[in-house]
Write a structure and sequence with these properties.
This protein is an alpha/beta fold. Helices cover 40% and strands 13% of the residues. The chain has 2 domains: 49 residues, Orthogonal Bundle (Helicase, Ruva Protein, domain 3); 139 residues, Dna Topoisomerase Vi A Subunit, Chain: A, domain 2 (3-Layer(aba) Sandwich). A hairpin with a 6-residue loop joins strand 1 and strand 2. Helix 1 packs across helix 2 and helix 4 crosses helix 7. The longest helix has 17 residues.
Length: 206
Amino acid sequence: MEFSSKLLEQAVEEISQLPGIGKRTALRLALHLLKLPTENTSRLTKALEQLKEKVKLCASCYNISDAPICYICSNPKRDKSTICVVEDIRDVMAIENTGQFRGLYHVLGGKISPIEGVGPQDLYIEALMDRIKQGEIKELIFALSSTMEGDTTNFYIYRKVQDFDLKVSTIARGISVGDELEYADEVTLGRSIMDRVLFERTLKKD
């Protein structure tokens, strides 16, 4: 792809680094930005700078937040005795959109995947254990995607919490095996949360 402007080429190169955006789409976006009034591009630039500089992880659940404690954890109306364990922020958003869950979350930041070099120590599992040890949590809900990595992560945490007086459940398999949680429709996901089952029932028995 030949460019008549080095600055345009640089912008296209940077935009194309975003997931799912190729060089042609990046060029279309760059040309669109070029046509916008300066105040519009200035607002976009400022929003991106603030996103990078000011957004942080919640000190409690590791959801992204503008404050040290996110708005979900700090909401007195949420059920603090129930924690839904998810992979990342997109899963929190997907579950919140159902309007069916009123507990808290714990974002692991990924799933155990030896092939990709991700072990338990790379996730926020110990932080979850610290929350459990405080004694306020009565139920742990596994809401990881139904993949081999998701199931491995569920089982690892299940083994670690067995000595605690906890109800451990998992979302119902209305979510197809192999599906990522963020792509499930709100009705299916909402029913899966409400119809959750005890995790031990999902384990294969010899």
